[in-house]
Amino acid sequence: MSPPPPSLWRRIKAALRPPRTLKVTSVGRTYLVVTFGVGLGALNTGNNLLYLVLGLLLSVIILSGVLSERCIKDLTVRRVGTDGAFAGEPFAFRWGITRRQGHAFALTLSEVDSPLAGEGGVGYLPAGAEHVVRADLTAPRRGPVKLTGVRITTTWPLGLFAKTRVFALEGTLLVYPRRGFACADPGEAAVGHVGEANNPHRLDGTGDIAGLRELGEHEDARRVHWLKSASVGKLLKVEREREERRTYILGVQAGLTGDALERRCEEVAEQAHRLLEAGHEVGLELPQQRLRPGAGSGQERAILRALAWLGFEEQREEAA
């Protein structure tokens, strides 16, 4: 069996070794101009002191490149992600970075080739321990954002050059609709069957105060009105009316595109948040999907995910 050609070996090595780039900072450009001027002066005058200064300046450039290269070696990075990303507002995004041996300084992390704006940094990274880097990123639009890699940059030690290394990490970030004020009315509540809704006349809810009565045996003492109990000399329990839980079905009409679709998704997201905060059950009806009514933060997250994928069904199938 003949060995692989040299070109194939070069491709394999390039794939295994993350790409590195070198960029001159503003301070570095000034430093290079000064170095070039000292070199011209040394050539024109033949002054040994200028040659000595030129050699010192060039050695600093070499030292900076060597130290920055050592700083971004032996790194491992993983994408921790975020709890929730909303379009048009900063959200917390995290990466986990580890160095196998040695120390690293002045590292900056960001996403490669993505519309996410923002970056996070760590000043000192010891060997062996994972450090979670937090950044405030901003997404310009709703929907899935494809993530291809993480960029790590360092300007250590002198800030003359920015050495960058890219780690290939595939992933998808789902951005929820922009949170704002909803002017539209959620519509009429759906009428449930008899027995499904709570009785509003039961006096064990969280609504308005209905009265006071003496606390019975084995009843919850957290509802005791201590001020009134102290005045009459016995424990009095506060009775509150139980608020009625209603069911709402929100929907996005078929055929909406562009700004109209974005605005409707924002309105539905805000309406769902407000209704769920009030204790009601909320369902969602989309052109190709339907969510059963539910309550709580889990239902709100399911509604936000459905709205974020609306209009990006092809990408959702590819991601699945």
Q: How would you explain this protein's 3D organization?
A:
With 320 residues, the chain is α+β, with helices and mostly antiparallel strands. The protein is built from seven helices and 14 strands. The strands form four sheets. Strands 1, 3, 5, 6, 8 and 9 form a six-stranded mixed sheet that branches. A hairpin with an 8-residue loop joins strand 5 (104-111) and strand 6. The longest helix is centred in the first third of the chain and has 24 residues, at 48-71. It is elongated, with a radius of gyration of 31 Å. The model is unreliable at 11-17 and 192-202 (pLDDT under 50).
Topology:
Layout: H1 6-16, E1 20-24, H2 26-45, H3 48-71, E2 75-81, E3 85-86, E4 91-99, E5 104-111, E6 120-125, E7 131-137, E8 143-154, E9 161-176, E10 209-214, H4 226-232, E11 236-240, E12 247-251, H5 258-277, E13 281-285, E14 290-294, H6 297-309, H7 313-319
Parallel strand pairs: 3-9, 12-13
Antiparallel strand pairs: 1-9, 2-4, 4-7, 5-6, 5-8, 8-9, 10-11, 13-14
Number of strands: 14
Distance between the termini: 40 Å
Shape: elongated
Q: Biggest β-sheet, characterized?
A: 6 strands, mixed
Based on secondary structure, the structural category is alpha+beta
DSSP helix count?
A: 7
Q: List segments where confidence is low: pLDDT < 50 over at least 5 consecutive residues.
A: 11-17, 192-202
Q: State Rg.
A: 31 Å
| Overall helicity | 25-40%
What's the order of the H and E elements?
Answer: HEHHEEEEEEEEEHEEHEEHH
Produce a short descriptive summary:
Helices cover 32% and strands 31% of the residues. The chain is an alpha+beta fold.
